[in-house]
Amino acid sequence: MLIEEIQAQVTESSTALRDVRHELGKAVIGQDAIISRLLIAILADGHVLIEGVPGLAKTLIVSSLAACLKASFTRIQFTPDLLPADITGTLIFNQKTAEFYPKKGPIFANFILADEINRAPSKVQSALLEAMQERQVTIGETSEPLPDPFFVMATQNPIEQEGTYPLPEAQIDRFMMKLLIRYPQMQEERKIMALMVDPKPIQILPVLTPEKIKLMRQVMHSVYMEEKLWDYILNLVWATRHPERYPRLGTLAPLINYGASPRASIYLAKAAKAHAYLEGRAYVVPDDIKAIGKDVLRHRIVLSYEAEAEEIQSEEIVGRILDEIEVP
After folding, report:
1. Taking the complete model, does pTM exceed 0.85, yes or no?
2. Nearest alpha-carbon partner for 257 in 319, 203, 300, 292
């Protein structure tokens, strides 16, 4: 397919995303970067982990996004006494028929907000993350497919660590992106106050459907990416594993125990295409990769004790890799 044909399809199909942003703007103030990353994850069929203090509109963003897309939404509050069946569902005995039948859990929705995922035990976290990976849930002897699109946004509170169960590295790796949500600016917070104190209800109109999202994904996959950009992505990921092989990155080697997995390469390519699509372009440029680089890589680097002793964060290491690896 010619690039001109792809561009025409991208221009035509991506216009609906402007309507989504407009509708979200009615309820969500000052989180444009987070909204962009969530749209990228939906287009690329990935999941997102958000870290931020309470009260920064994490629930509001996802519920409003679900309303924009005319999709089902479920919020699951993770607590220490939660069981896997509370999420996936269980078998219920019917006394009239003397048979068991599957009762679906709250995970059977298009949009899932897993609130404070690190407050539930490991077996509950595993049940959610397995469903994220397999896109189906087995209840008894029956395997039920999850809805499509299926999008999970999990949250973590970075402040309180008592009574939490940190996600293992292998499970964090299943999230396409890890986002850090910030406090709003003063003027943005003034608008939030005016919006929330005003008793008038906020009406968000559905402007997309799950069927349209599937069509948009097909167009997004056709976005063109040159061979040299594939190599650029591989160099970024390999620099997290073997920094000593790259000029000016050798000093990072003692700071990294384990680098990013092959999932990082896959998600960088997918997210770069989705970012280009979101910008209305039929081709990927290096800035698309750099724009989403930190979000895809920050949770995939396991730091050494030396890095922790020097209070060096993975964010700094990823930033340095993005600065030093030569852009094609």
Report:
1. yes
2. 300
